[in-house]
Amino acid sequence: MTNTFHTSACAAVLSAIAVALACSSGDGKGDTPAGGGSGVSGGTAPSGGTAPSGGATATGGLSASAGGASPSISGGSSTVTAGNANSGGAAEAIGGSGSGGTASSASSAGTNTGIGGAGGATKSAGCGVGASLKTGRTTLSVSGTMREYVLRLPDDYDASRAYKLIFAFHARGGNAAQVTGNGNSDYYGLYSRAQGGAIFVAPEGLDAGWRNTDGRDITFVKAMLSEFKSKLCIDQQRIFSVGFSFGGMMSDAIGCAMADVFRAIAPMAGGIPNADHPYSGCEQPNMHPIAVWMSHGDNDTTVPLADGKDALNLFVGRNKCQPQTTAVNPSPCVAYQGCTDGYPIHFCQFSGGHMVPSFASAAIWTFFDQF
């Protein structure tokens, strides 16, 4: 199937856990708020355990005002670039060419040991070293391409303390500044919940998304990890990824390629490649289990529920879970049974469209914080 996208960027500040969505006109697979635009219908969801379709009402997404870094982001080091964040611009098709390539599962940042349980911290090489990275927008050369990310350190960052590291990926047509947000909406609402216990990063996608052509975005993630581990005090057993829509697909791609490095992922309205939709790529041969919290609206006409369930079934298989589920908080989430010890999978199929559900922020933080 060939997807054609006719999009224009629009922005509005909405709820406390809001996320960037690019408004779409015409037909295709734009990242649209609930009720906006037409898209591919959900189709028949693959098997893989049942999940109630009821539950909490979902809230719509957020597009922060285009351009400019968030007011909450301060200056930073000499590597922080001046200027505004990318505006949404013409949103790029999710399903275009380039399905991901074959990036190696062994990242330059190294492979975690003892990742299977909670336990103590495994400190990175940057612990005890004065922070040379500061809160703010920074550039990084990756395979000859200048990439950008927005870093957020705790206000009382202590170089002797090992912090959780949380990557937060924007939706298609969005940008990092939309993820950083303002106040309690920072980083999908997780920054305030961390209460100074985590370092956050919002990477900037190329072509307003995470196509991961030839594995370029996985390579970007590995380069950022190498930078952070050498210059900041990171708990190498507690590295996480969260994202919505194309950002959720990027989190799925990380779960495929870097499960031995990341402790857990939280893709919302994500998916893995199929014949019709290449998405962010999931070809890397990393079979290590990874903890997964996942949400998807049962009436999502932008990213079909079936595509989200393809990703769900992949991780259910990798974690050796049984098809049976039991209800967990918050409703309507369920937990798969019999998963590899230390690698739970929670799936939250809610009544709604292409959006971040209202319960996401609290539920994702609770899921991450158990490790």
Strand content: 15-25%
Ends distance = 41 Å
- For the secondary structure, the number of strands is 12
Q: What composes the largest sheet? A: 10 strands, mixed
**String of helices and strands:** EEEEEHHEHEHEEHEEEH
Number of domains: 1
Overall CATH architecture: 3-Layer(aba) Sandwich
In terms of quaternary structure, what is this?
single chain
Radius of gyration: 18 Å
The CATH superfamily name is Alpha/Beta hydrolase fold, catalytic domain
Task: Kindly name the structural category.
Answer: alpha/beta
Helix proportion: 10-25%
Number of contiguous helices:
6
Question: Can you tell me the CATH topology?
Answer: Rossmann fold
Strand order of the largest sheet: 3-4-6-5-7-8-9-12-11-10
Uncertain runs with pLDDT below 50, 5 residues or more?
1-117
Average pLDDT, to the nearest integer?
Answer: 76
What does this structure look like?
The protein has 371 residues and is α/β, with parallel strands linked by helices. It has a single domain, classed as Alpha/Beta hydrolase fold, catalytic domain (Rossmann fold), CATH 3.40.50. It has helices at residues 176-180, 186-194, 216-231, 246-257, 305-318, 360-369; strands at residues 6-7, 24-25, 136-142, 145-152, 163-169, 198-203, 234-244, 264-268, 291-297, 325-327, 333-336, 345-350. Strands 3-4-6-5-7-8-9-12-11-10 form a 10-stranded mixed β-sheet, with helices on both faces. Strands 1-2 form a two-stranded antiparallel sheet. The protein is 18% helix and 18% strand. Helix 2 crosses helix 6. Strand 7, helix 4 and strand 8 form a beta-alpha-beta unit. The chain contains 6 helices and 12 strands. The N and C termini lie far apart (41 Å). The chain is globular, with a radius of gyration of 18 Å.
